[in-house]
C-alpha cells in the first residue's frame, strides 16, 4: 500500500456563545477551528487526523506531500523519521500520524485500541472545566454534572488566591473526586495578559491543596520544561503533580521520569506525541509506577485518538471537556456522530481505525 494523496481542510464551527479559556488569557472563545488532514492510498482507504488551528487556518498539505507520497502508511516509525523535519519547522505532525493509524486500522478491519493490544472497555470521565469561575457558579456546575452521573470535576485556577474556590467546592462536595489545573505550562498569548507563577507561588498553592485534602492532582503549576522545579515541588508536597500535555515529543517525558517530576503523565496524542509515541509514554508510566491520563481538549478526532490509547493502557480517568458552550457537540462538529458519555463513562468506537466518520457536508464546502 502507498500514500497517493495528502489533503487538508481548514474547518471552523461557531458555538452558541463563548467562554474564556485560561490558556488564552482575556480572549473569549466562541469558535472551534480545526485543521483536518486526509491521507489517501492506492488501496482506496482514506485516513483522517486533525490538529487545533487558528481562524483562517494555515496550509501544510503541499509540504507534507513531499514527505508522505509513495510511503507505506503502515511504516509509522519510518514516516515519523521523515516527519521529524516537519516537526522542526512546523507544524507538529501528530495529526498526520493519527491519520496513518486510521488507515492501518481500516486496512486490518480493527479499531486502533485492538491494534495496540487493548480490548473494548469503559473509562470513567472527569468533567474538565475551561475557565475560572466564582465558587457559587462552579458549585452549580458541579451539581449539574453530578445529575448527569459524572463523579469527578477538574477546576481551573490562575492565581494563588483561587485556593478559596477549590476550598468552597470541596466543602460543598466532600466526596467529589477533584482535580485542579493551574495552566502554567503554556499559554496562547493573544492579549499578553498571562499570570505566571514562581516556584514559591506553586509551592504555596500546592500546600493549600494539601490542607484542603483529597485532591486527585495539581496540573501544570509551572512551565512545561522546568523538570527540576517540578521534581522539587513534587518532593515538597503530598498532592500528586500532573503535566506534559503540550510537551512536544517523547524525549520530554523521559526527562520528566528521569527527574522524578510528575505523578501523572498527560501527553495529548494530537498535540504532543501521536498515537505510537503516546502508547510508549503509557508504557513508560507503567514501568515507573506513574499514571497515564492524557489531555484531550482538542477536537473530536483528537479526543477519539487519545481514547483508543487510554483504553489500550487502562487509564484510570478520561478528560471530558465540558464548559458551556463548549460541549461534546461543539467538540465533535466535524464528525457524523457525537461521542458522549453515559452515566459518567465513555467507551471508544469499535469500528475500524478511529471508528469515526467525517461529516461529508464539511468536506464538500
From TrEMBL:
Organism: Halorientalis brevis
Keywords, comma-separated and alphabetical: Magnesium, Metal-binding
Swiss-Prot/TrEMBL cofactor(s): Mg(2+)
Residues annotated as domain Mandelate racemase/muconate lactonizing enzyme C-terminal: 135-240
Record keyword Metal-binding present: yes
InterPro entries per record: Enolase-like_C_sf (IPR036849), Enolase-like_N (IPR029017), Enolase_C-like (IPR029065), Mandelate_racemase_C (IPR013342), Mandelate_racemase_N_dom (IPR013341), RHMD-like (IPR046945)
Pfam families to which the protein is assigned, alphabetical: MR_MLE_C, MR_MLE_N
Name the record gives this protein: Mandelate racemase/muconate lactonizing enzyme family protein
GO molecular function: hydro-lyase activity; metal ion binding
